């Protein structure tokens, strides 16, 4: 299986999960949450040090190169770059850090793919205004984005406004796995709109400011194709609505500039539709992404809910669908996620057929496994054949999608070096490179050698790959 010429082999990470809090002047919501409730995090490990990328990046980048990583997705932390959120004044130390980092990446031959927002709302903006619930925060984000474009426009060719907006809704406003752990369906609806608006505003600003010919701007969406548990009409209806809510709510505005009309009708008849002005809708209509990043980990199987959505209950999106755990599924038990590579083919076809075959790439895919020292040999190398199998099987499906004409131009593993997984901290390790978090010693796993071969040959190595 030979991938198309120029196919990009990369890895993804984020600022809050890798940098560590060195020289940061503001807390983001995770810093604040850890400072106030450290027991919420696995083994009490917080975001202070993470993988020490702030200090260690020259060394880390060299290791990534050895793993064949030719592009690295990372994020700027709003809470590091900006001194005064209201005016958008830059914090010089933060600005210098990212400039040095991007320059070192270029010198190392690793192309930066930069995300502006990866779950890390500044804590002050969460507390003062309610974070993404507030349109004022949307305008502050636009100011931050403008500064980033001005500062790094000549260094960056691939910009992304948001990482996984859906997870922001789920974590902060519905299912309580990110601070401030609110449960409020109608607020989640407004947040969905506000994030789409913030992304469009940043795209508009990019078009005004950017002078780097060929630079593009996109968005990173976690797509979880919704599959009905059965052929029963009620399960299929649940899957239809789940697809609209989980995927199309962000895909359609980002790519076509409109919201799915049947979802809008449903929210309207439930009296929970977002507040939006005509000018805001025009802005969204006129500012589309150039490329789409797709994070894919697991499918979303659904069945009809236990009680009718007409029952008297607080509005939540899942009054329309219930998650279904398919018996006999293959699962990454450590993370509780079904492993279903075929969904990547389905995503490829859906982008081709429903979303104009927009240029896209897999911006995250990987497997988080706990206690990886189980698989370590006498020399300290983790033999992570399960990760190789996982990536291999997903790439087989991706390849099928590309052969069927889907416009996919890259694959980024989550992640290069084991990093901090939010509430799960260092429980599940995703890296091609192991991080001993007690010493910060970083060493290649077997999968790094596999990935290196893949990246250099552009051909999928066999699963029974032998170390060189
Ligand atoms: C995605 C996020 C990443 C990363 C990954 C793995 O949702 O964009 O930040 O963390 O999932 O998930 P987790 O860390 O929750 O195991």
Looking at this structure, what is the CATH superfamily? Glycosidases
- What is the rounded Rg? 21 Å
User: What is the CATH architecture term?
Assistant: Alpha-Beta Barrel
Low-confidence stretches: none
Mean pLDDT: 98
Structural class determined from secondary elements: alpha/beta
* CATH topology call: TIM Barrel
Largest sheet: 8 strands, parallel, barrel
What small molecules does the structure contain? 6-O-phosphono-beta-D-galactopyranose
Total number of beta strands? 19
Structure description:
With 468 residues, this protein is of the alpha/beta class. The protein has one domain (8-457): TIM Barrel (Alpha-Beta Barrel). The chain is built from 15 helices and 19 strands. The chain has helices at residues 15-18, 29-36, 53-66, 78-81, 92-108, 123-129, 135-152, 165-174, 185-209, 233-256, 261-269, 278-286, 342-354, 385-403, 446-457; strands at residues 8-12, 71-75, 82-84, 89-90, 111-117, 158-163, 216-222, 226-228, 291-295, 300-303, 322-323, 331-332, 337-338, 360-364, 369-370, 408-414, 428-429, 433-436, 441-444. The strands form six sheets. An eight-stranded parallel β-barrel has the order 1-2-5-6-7-9-14-16, surrounded by six helices. Strands 8-10-11 form a three-stranded mixed beta sheet, covered by helices on one side. Strand 18 (433-436) and strand 19 form a beta hairpin. The longest helix is centred in the middle third of the chain and has 25 residues, at 185-209. The two termini are 20 Å apart. The mean pLDDT is 98. Bound molecules: 6-O-phosphono-beta-D-galactopyranose (BGP). 6-O-phosphono-beta-D-galactopyranose is lined by residues 14, 17, 163-164, 167, 222, 295, 335, 364, 368, 414, 421-422, 424, 428.
């Amino acid at each position: 299986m030979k991938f198309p010429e120029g196919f990009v082999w990369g890895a993804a990470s984020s600022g809050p999960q890798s940098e560590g809090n060195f020289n940061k002047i503001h807390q983001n919501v995770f810093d604040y949450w850890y400072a106030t409730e450290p027991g919420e995090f696995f083994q009490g490990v917080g975001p202070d040090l993470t993988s020490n990328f702030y200090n260690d990046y020259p060394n880390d980048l060299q290791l990534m190169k050895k793993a064949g990583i030719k592009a690295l997705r990372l994020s700027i932390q709003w809470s590091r770059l900006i001194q005064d959120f209201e005016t958008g004044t830059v914090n010089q130390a933060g600005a210098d850090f990212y400039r040095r980092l991007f320059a070192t990446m270029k010198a190392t031959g690793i192309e930066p793919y930069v995300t502006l927002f990866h779950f890390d709302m500044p804590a002050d903006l969460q507390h003062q205004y309610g974070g993404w619930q507030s349109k004022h925060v949307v305008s502050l984000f636009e100011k931050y984005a403008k500064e980033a474009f001005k500062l790094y426009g000549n260094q960056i060719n691939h910009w992304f406004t948001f990482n996984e907006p859906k997870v922001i809704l789920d974590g902060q406003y519905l299912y309580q796995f990110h601070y401030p752990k609110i449960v409020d369906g109608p607020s989640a609806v407004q947040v969905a709109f506000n994030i789409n608006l913030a992304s469009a505003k940043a795209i508009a600003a990019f078009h005004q400011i950017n002078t780097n010919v060929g630079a593009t701007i996109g968005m990173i969406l976690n797509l979880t194709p919704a599959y009905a548990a059965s052929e029963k009409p009620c399960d299929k209806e649940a899957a239809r609505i789940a697809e609209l809510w989980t995927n199309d709510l962000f895909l359609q505005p980002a790519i076509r500039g409109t919201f799915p009309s049947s979802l809008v009708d449903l929210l309207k008849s439930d009296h929970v539709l977002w507040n939006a002005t005509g000018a805001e809708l025009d802005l969204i209509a006129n500012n589309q992404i150039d490329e789409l990043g797709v994070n894919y980990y697991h499918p979303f199987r659904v069945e009809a809910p236990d009680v009718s959505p007409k029952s008297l209950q607080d509005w939540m999106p899942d009054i329309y669908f219930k998650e279904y755990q398919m018996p006999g599924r293959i699962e990454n038990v450590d993370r509780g996620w079904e492993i279903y590579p075929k969904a990547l083919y389905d995503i490829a076809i859906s982008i081709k057929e429903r979303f104009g075959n927009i240029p896209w790439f897999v911006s995250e895919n990987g497997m988080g496994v706990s206690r990886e020292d189980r698989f370590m040999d006498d020399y300290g190398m983790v033999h992570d054949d399960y990760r190789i199998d996982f990536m291999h099987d997903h790439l087989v499906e991706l390849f099928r999608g590309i052969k069927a004409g889907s416009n996919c131009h890259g694959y980024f593993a989550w992640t290069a070096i084991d990093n901090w997984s939010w509430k799960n901290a260092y429980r599940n390790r995703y890296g091609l490179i192991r991080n001993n978090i007690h010493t910060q010693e970083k060493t290649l796993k077997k999968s790094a050698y596999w990935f290196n071969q893949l990246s250099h040959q552009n051909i999928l190595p066999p699963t029974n790959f032998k170390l060189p």
